[in-house]
Each structure stands twice: as C-alpha cells, then as structure tokens.
User: Fold this.
Amino acid sequence: MIGMECDVLVIGAGILGLSSAYHIKRENPGKNVAVIDKHGGPGQGNSAKSEGGFRNLFTSETNFLLADSTIDWFKHMEEELGHHIGLSYIGYLFLLNEEHYTGQKESWDRIRDHGGEMRVLDREELEEMIPGLVTHFGDDEEAELLGLNPVDYGVFGKKCGCIDADALTRAYEAEFLNLGGEIHYGTEAKSLTLEPEQELEIPGEPFVWQDAHITGAETTQGKIRADTTVVAAGVWSEGLLDPLGVDSFMRPKKRQLFVFKDPRLESLFNVEGFNEYGTMPLTILPKAGVLFRPERSENTIWLACADNLGRKYELEEDPQAEEGFYTESIYHILVKYFPCFEGVRPMNSWAGQYAINGYDELPVVTPAPGMIYVGAASGSGIMKCDSIARIAAALYAGREEAELYGGRRFRVADLGIHNRNVERESLIL
Amino acid sequence: MIGMECDVLVIGAGILGLSSAYHIKRENPGKNVAVIDKHGGPGQGNSAKSEGGFRNLFTSETNFLLADSTIDWFKHMEEELGHHIGLSYIGYLFLLNEEHYTGQKESWDRIRDHGGEMRVLDREELEEMIPGLVTHFGDDEEAELLGLNPVDYGVFGKKCGCIDADALTRAYEAEFLNLGGEIHYGTEAKSLTLEPEQELEIPGEPFVWQDAHITGAETTQGKIRADTTVVAAGVWSEGLLDPLGVDSFMRPKKRQLFVFKDPRLESLFNVEGFNEYGTMPLTILPKAGVLFRPERSENTIWLACADNLGRKYELEEDPQAEEGFYTESIYHILVKYFPCFEGVRPMNSWAGQYAINGYDELPVVTPAPGMIYVGAASGSGIMKCDSIARIAAALYAGREEAELYGGRRFRVADLGIHNRNVERESLIL
Assistant:
C-alpha cells in the first residue's frame, strides 16, 4: 500500500466510518473511496459491542430527525436490500415516578408534536401488563436506603427496539464493497498528514504563514494520500486530531454490558401488549440509568447501566466489564423492581466505550481543511448512523442541506461546530 | 493541613481561582474560603505568562459584557483600590484587507450597537499615522509567496490595551487575603473526593444507586474537606475532572511570547493619534494571527502568534518557546509589514498554555454536585476575569443572575453547559 492514493480516505471501519464511506461512494461512484481500520474486521472497535437499542423517542427535534429516518432506513435495509440486521421493534419503556413524569410534561408534548408515537401507561396498567414488576416499595427499608423511586408511569415508544449492531455494520460494509469501495483492515492510521497548499520544499513546512490542509495519513502500511480524509475513528479520533490542534469534541467513557440466560427470567419473554413478539420492551428503570432488553434470538437479557458522575473519562485499549459493578451496584436496584433477577448472575459480559460530547451529547460532523470529522455520537451513533453518514456525504459534496432517508432535509452546518444549531435532549438515559 | 476543613476550597491560584475566591469571600465574609495551588505563588501556572492584552472590541454580546465590565473593574482596582496593575489604554488595532473588512460589515455594526468604541481608519490614514507600516507589496515576489494580505483598513478599539497580568493576579491575592481568605501554596490537589450524600460505610462507596457529590480534594498535604470545591486549575483541570467523568470543556494549547528590545524598534514608541502615550497600539497583522504590543515600562515589544491548525493540543508541564518558530514562521511576515524588525532577534521568550474551549471559545462556569468548575477561558480569561468570578460567586450563592462590576446583569446559566447561551465571536485572533 506504500504510495497509495485515493480521493477519499475514511479512517475507521466502525458504524460511522462505513456508513459515511457508503454514502460518499454512492453519491460519487467515480471516486476512489478507501476505508482503513486497525482492527481485523468491521465494527471491531466499539460498534459491535453496542447494546443495539434504537428509539425515535427524543424530545430534541435534531435527535428525532436523525434517529427516525435512520430507523426507516433500517427497515429498508432489511426488507428491501435483504440484510439480516436483526431489526426488532420491541419498543422502549421508560419507567418513571410521578415527579419525573409530570416534571417533563413539556418533553412529552414535544415528542408528540414531532410525531413520535408514544403511549403513556399508568401504574395500574403497568402492573396488569407486567406482573413481574414491583412498582411501590411500601416500608421496605432497603429500598429506602437505595433511594429507589416508585414506578407511577410508563412512557412507551413504539418505533423503538433493537438491532444487531454487528450485522448492521457488516451490511454497510457489504453495500460499500458492492459499489466498488476498498477496505484495508489491519491498517492503522498513525497520524494525519498536514501539508501546505503550495509546497515550497523548505524543511519545516507548513509554516504558520502557509495555508495548510490534511492530505491523508501515515499508516502502519505506509503513507496514504487523499484529497479528503474522513476521520471516523470513534474514541480513537482524539489521538489523530490532537496533534493537529483540532478538537474531537468527545471524551471516551466505558459502558458495560451484562448478559443473562436463566429460566428464572422467562417471564420477561412472556409479556403481552408491547410488541408482536410478546416480550418486554427495552426497559429503563427509574433509577441510576439501569436498562435491559430481551434478545429473542438467544433467549438472553442484555443489561447496561448509563453511569455518569464517578465513571471516569479515559481511553482504554481493551476495556473490561467489572463483575463487581453488577453485583454491588446494579443488582440491588434491579432485583427490587424485577424480583425475577433474584440470585441470577451474568453468563457473559463485555465493555465498550462511548465517545461522549459533553456539551450537548449530539454527534459532530464538521470540516477542517482537507478533512471531515464524524464522531462524538455519545452512545447513540448506531441509531442515527444513516442520517449522520448522509450529512457527512453532503458536507463532502459541499451541499448546505442533506437529504435524509425518506426525503426529510437537514441543514449540514447544524451538526458542525461554528454554526452549530442542535436541540439538546431532555430524555436521556 | 491534615484533616483541614473549609466551606469553600478553590483549586488554583491563577487569575480565575483568585478572582473567584475573592468574590465568593467578599459576598460571604463568614465563610471559610481556602485556595490551594501546587506552585509557590499566585499566577505561576499560566496567568503570569500572558501577554496581558485586553479589549472590549468583540462582536459577541457575551464577550463584550464579560470584558467591558472587567475593564471597568481594572480601572477601579488601580484608581480606587490603589493596586499598581500596569493598566495601559494603548488600544487595539486590527489591520485588515478590503475583503476581511467588508466581509465583516455586520460585525462592526454589532460592535457599535453594543457600545464598543471603535474607529475605522483607511489606508491613507494608516500610512500617515504609522510611517513604519508597509500596506501594499506591489510585485514583491516574497510577499506573494508568503500569501500576505495588503492593509486596506485598520479597526481601532479605544477601550483596549494591556495590563500586567502578574500584578493583577497579585492584586486579587492581596484583596482576598485582606478579607481573611486563606491560601496554601505548594499544595497540589491530587484528586477530587467523591462521596455519597448518605454514607453507609460499605467499602466501594459511592455505588451507582447513591447520590454522590464532591467533598473536597486529596492533596500533597493531606485531605481537605469542603462543602463546595471550586475547580479553577486551568489546563490542569482535566486531570482532576476526567477521573470523575466530568468534562473540562477545554484542551491545552501552547502560546509563545517573544520579547524585543532594540533601538531599531524605537519608531513603534513614537506614533501619534492612537493613545496618550504616543505608542503603537496592540497591533494585529492581517496574516497568521501575529500580534505585538509595546511595553512602555521597559521599552520592549511583546510579540505573539495565535497559531491554530497544526499547533497540537497537549498538556505540557513546562512549555517552552521555540526560537525557530520566530525565525522561520513569524519573522518573514512581520518584517514585511514592519521593516523596522529587519535583523532584530528576541532578547527573551517564554510560553504558556491556553485552555481552549473548541466549541465556542467562551469561558465555562458550571456546577457539578458539590462543585463549581470555572475555566476553558480560551486565552481571554484575564480580560474577563472579574465578570467570570462574579458569575462563579453568583452560582455559589444559587442566584440566577450575577451583577457584573458597574451593575450590568448576566444570566448565570448562560456560561453553564446545560442551558448554555452564548454568542459566538467573529472577531478572533
């Protein structure tokens, strides 16, 4: 690969890199678009480690647009393009106490306004539909010690569910390769190359008086020159951008996933009224960001916890799940709301890293000379991937607006930095 | 200091730490407010390394408010409180070509709208006032190679100038000590302490189900407990906040300063029409962010360059100026506009680090449980210090609005993150 040149070099074969590469190639079939990744296959950084939940239940109009049209695209991918991406509309169920529910009245109105299909269930309905759920704790001292909120309401989103993140990433890979895209695995970008627009061949270039731009990357397989470099390296983007003094607008935070397979959890697969499969939806407890979902294909429950304060920002090459995090932190809460978890221990666990944008937790698609940065998706990059990628492709083409799947339009600069215009989200996990 | 307790612990005795400590103590004389710093004296991190320029010439209403009232406060400090802080209204002069000037028509209008005293000079006026300035380069090939912009206009700000950043920091220190504030130098915060609101004395606390808050810091002199911890550690804030998963909203970038003392530069001290001292104002060249100012007290010229793309983000414990940066990057430009620099070499140089907020380059004053973070001032913290500190004090008191010096009001949440509302700046260096 020494001396390789291409029109577009995409760094990162995760979900955002491959979807961006696909849409850029689709719009520019004559251009040579190459993807590189240090891992041996697609999504091996953090994409394939995702819980794979998706929702259009967002208060932020920006989030709604990005996710809603990506969800439509998932359907297109599965039904019309024939990819088995495990699309499963199990729904999302936010369990809330009175205060959280009524305190967010405006949020629910906003969701309804922009067309999120939402259903509110009161305590009685919830108890009837989910016999295994404990909604109130009476004078349970342990529950009081744990500071548990009762469940007074459930907010249910219908156009929500889960997807096989690994299969989704591979589907984009396949579509990209079909178009004639190139992928080089096992090829790590060591640094981006910054060169003057007009080279003078004086050692030390570019000087501060020269207009400079990014012209590709030095990789473990040699230098790759590109007219445009797309940095979509997730939590590893910082290592490429910091040396150039370009902000990656994200910090890496570990998220753990615990998988359960136990006959005691059978009841979670036998719940009527939420979805066609008769299972629990992806369910968010009213405490500490604990959430779980059934995975029907293997009769397992996948559980995560969106811990925030106290969970360090740090880039880890190989983050691991901590067993104590489940047994000491999550278990006590979980078993109070869902006593079926009593004594159940995870059969598997892993951890990935979110690239968290601490400002507004929305993705960033922004240019620098010769470069486009796509990232900072803050843990919801998969459910917004197709929209983000179309916005990146529009930025590459120099268009002011992107057309999302289904025809809705999105102002490209809104996800940029200098004229950023995004609606912050209030319904966060 | 082992076992020390205080009401407010301020980490960092730089300009933002000391000004915040002062205003918090002033508003709460009964509270025990302690400042710690790893250095041996005030401002020894980056504050005292600043060029010390100040301006109210900002297009952003937010920037204007923060700086304009801080500049009024500087005057109060010098004239009424009797501090020798080297306040010198030499003015700011932006040299611009036609395109940059006319392309920013709206910016100039906005500056006039919010009351920035501004004067526009055309090329003839500039040539007359500054005989040593070259405005056009004709067919000078080297100038073409350097991509130099001609000087067609000058935009001059009157309520602008420079201040002795070291003396300013010491003035806040003195005022804070006068009020009975405590400072412990040579005391480094190693980490912030995160504890549950309700301690259960179970090893491993705080667990994810516990409400937790910051309760002080572990320092090189032992643990300090505080009801509120103010993190104002500049570029070192990241090292304290990352382990808690709290974003510092900044990345460190080196800025270099070169000092000249040479009879050939005498003409820069003999210019009429800009200020009462008959010197050049702080002057910004129309290329590469190069700027300089006369320092009258020692007959020197202080020169800096706001290099951006290609200047890495990296925390350096002891950043140094690079001689080659002056000779290879800045000199060629400088000598074209101001030939008096021909053959002149710096007699001194140093470097500091900016804490750059890549989103909007405005400061951040934001709460976390038990904590207030004050930082990310992006290189203009000194000229906005008093306003930032009053906003921090208002946040500490739980007020929605801060009263800036002179009586103007500022919504505290505007500098926070969750409801951030700042006007981005278009007149950047």
The two ends of chain A are 43 Å apart (CA to CA). Chain A has two domains: 4-52+166-250+359-415, 92-157+252-352.
